[in-house]
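Colleagues,

For the teaching module next term, I've prepared a clean inverse folding example: a structure given as tokens, and then the sequence designed for it. I'd like students to try predicting residues themselves before seeing the answer, so please don't circulate the second half yet.
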């Protein structure tokens, strides 16, 4: 049977072995300060501080999900070096303090003389009316702007309107805090465009030139170009580029599919030739060009003399040659163009 103690127990610093905390579906009635229990539903310890119950933590022994839910930020700071066994820490933000960890891209940028700015949500690479095109609710590069969002205006026709801005509820955007003062923008200033934009999401843009040193917001111009490695890339001959998407130009006679490039058979003629045939007065040649309206000729293999014979355009893949006297085996070369 259970016993109730009506006096305090002094164990004289001896251990309580194999003890189990009070497990209950809810807080015990009429608690006193310092009283503890474990909630059977949440598996968390609660202690009464005199005015209310305070959570102490989660019992992880039988709850793997509880382990995975614990944030590193909730743990105590380490008191010695932590080895990562060759694994990487990923997804870091750019450093701002002297003792902050630095990302590879940040270090590469510093090595190349770059000045990293905080990321923007979207890049506008073409001109827009500053007073109306970049307010809350407007769409830029497939992204709907919201108040407070950071944006890069890289394509304004008026070059003094270019730079890093913050979206407002209405009207023209404000210059962002890291791009609104004298000298904030200079050649080498670089900004990352966050994922989401149709053409420019997950790209980087660098200021390649200004017309004044120091740069003055609203008065000085700035030129922004897409950054990749040490320089931006551009579409060469026969290619087109839209954002990060490159494509082959579909010129006259070129057919471009989703994953292939070929000849446009409605424009460009193809040729089939063979000198393999039977000795017969009627020789059917299968050319496989998929076009019945072809030019067909026959030549003597021995001296390339053009041979006059009957030609029947049998179907889209076959031409039949007719002779009054059967030529010898493999003595005629047939050339079909279409």
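(Answer key — instructors only)
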């Amino acid at each position: 049977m259970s016993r109730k103690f009506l006096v305090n127990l002094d164990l004289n610093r001896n251990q309580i072995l194999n003890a189990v905390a009070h497990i209950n579906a809810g807080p015990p009635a009429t608690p006193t300060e310092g009283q503890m229990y474990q909630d059977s539903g949440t598996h968390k310890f609660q202690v009464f501080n005199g005015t209310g119950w305070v959570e102490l933590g989660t019992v992880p022994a039988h709850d793997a999900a509880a382990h995975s839910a614990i944030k590193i930020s909730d743990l105590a700071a380490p008191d010695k070096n932590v080895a990562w066994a060759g694994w990487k820490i990923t997804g870091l933000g750019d450093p701002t303090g002297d003792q902050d960890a630095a990302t590879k891209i940040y270090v590469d940028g510093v090595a190349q003389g770059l000045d990293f700015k905080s990321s923007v949500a979207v890049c506008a690479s073409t001109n827009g009316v500053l007073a109306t095109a970049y307010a809350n609710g407007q769409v830029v590069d497939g992204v709907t702007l919201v108040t407070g969002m950071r944006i890069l205006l890289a394509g304004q026709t008026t070059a003094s309107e270019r730079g890093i801005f913050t979206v407002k509820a209405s009207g023209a955007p404000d210059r962002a805090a890291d791009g609104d003062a004298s000298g904030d923008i200079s050649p080498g200033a670089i900004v990352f465009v966050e994922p989401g934009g149709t053409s420019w999401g997950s790209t980087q843009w660098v200021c390649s030139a200004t017309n004044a040193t120091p740069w003055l917001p609203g008065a000085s111009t700035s030129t922004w170009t897409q950054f990749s490695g040490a320089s931006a890339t551009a579409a060469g001959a026969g290619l087109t580029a839209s954002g990060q998407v490159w494509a082959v130009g579909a010129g006259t006679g070129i057919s471009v599919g989703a994953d292939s490039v070929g000849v446009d058979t409605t424009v460009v003629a193809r040729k089939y030739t063979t000198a393999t045939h039977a000795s017969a007065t009627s020789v059917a040649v299968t050319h496989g060009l998929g076009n019945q309206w072809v030019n067909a000729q026959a030549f003597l293999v021995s001296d390339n003399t053009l041979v006059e014979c009957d030609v029947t355009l049998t179907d889209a893949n076959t031409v039949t040659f007719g002779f009054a006297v059967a030529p010898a085996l493999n003595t005629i070369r047939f050339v079909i163009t279409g």
